[in-house]
Every structure is written in structure tokens, then in C-alpha cells.
Amino acid sequence: MEPIKKQGRHFVLVHGACHGGWCWYKLKPLVEVAGHKVTTLDLAASGIDLRKIEELHAFHDYTLPLMESLPQEQKVILVGHRLGGMNLGLVMEKYPQKIYVAVFLIAFMPDSIHTSSYVLDQVNNIYIPFAFLM
After folding, report:
1. pLDDT at residue 130 is higher than 70
2. DSSP tag of 123
3. Contact call for residues 35 and 43 (beta carbons, < 8 A)
4. DSSP calls for 25-48
5. Given strand 10-14, what is the order of strands in its sheet?
6. What pLDDT was estimated at residue 111?
7. DSSP letter at 134?
8. What is the torsional sign of CA 113, 116, 118, 124?
């Protein structure tokens, strides 16, 4: 793995529940001034995405904006905050060839044995208020 400093990298910053891409407004310019590209996005029914969470049928639907934002020929550094860590887990399972590294910032993190959906099921069994995210 080559050092990050040798070339600018592409960071994709993923917000947690009840937030949007706006929550990275202080970090984004700092990473950009260091010579990197930064993408912040709104997951489905978050930020300025006008859909309601009740319109989403699966966690995959919630994560779709992230999956669609990944470039075809470039590996990205994913950074997920809180529930955004579960989005990272799902994307890492589906598109491992597109991920340079993933950073879980105070985030839910699937283990190396179970899938993201397993972890979400376990959270749902313990914390019923998260059921809307399933």
C-alpha cells in the first residue's frame, strides 16, 4: 500500500443517521487543502434528499446514493460516522475493488465474520427505534 501523501486521494465522507453531507463542512476544506478530492453526499431520505425514510424498503435503498457515487476506475477512502459505518460495511461487501481503505469514525462496524445485514438485525433486536432503517 503506497503512502497517501504521494498522490492526492479521493475521500468519500458518509454521514450518520439524521444528518446529511452538510455535517462535514469543517472537515472537507481541510482535506481538500491537503491536496485530496472530497465527496460528501446525502444518503437516501437524509440531508436535502426529499424522500421520507418510510419510502425506503431496505437498508440497501438508504445506501444507494453512496454506491452510485463511487467512481469506476478509482479506489476511494471511505469515512463513515456512526450509522454511516454500516453503509461502509455494505459497500465494502459489494464493491471491495473500489475501496482503498475504510475509516470507521465512532461508527457501527461489522466484524470479519458477519455481514452488515446481520449486524443491523442484531441492532434491530436490541434497539427497536432503529427498525425504520431496516
Report:
1. no
2. H
3. no
4. TTHHHHHHHTT-EEEE-PPTTSTT
5. 37-40, 10-14, 76-81, 99-105
6. 81
7. -
8. positive
CB atoms within 10 A of CB 19: 18
Task: Kindly list the structural domains of the chain, giving each domain's residue range(s) and its CATH number in brackets, ordered by start.
Answer: 4-133 (3.40.50.1820)
Q: How far apart are CA 118 and CA 10, in angstroms?
A: 29
User: How would you classify the pairing of strands 99-105 and 76-81?
Assistant: parallel
The angle at the Cα of 134, spanning 129 to 10, to the nearest 5 degrees, equals 110
Q: 79 φ, ψ to 5°?
A: -125, 120
pTM of the shown model:
0.85
pLDDT at 3: 55
Give tens-digit pLDDT for 108-125.
Answer: 888 878 877 787 777 777
At residue 8, what is the residue type?
G
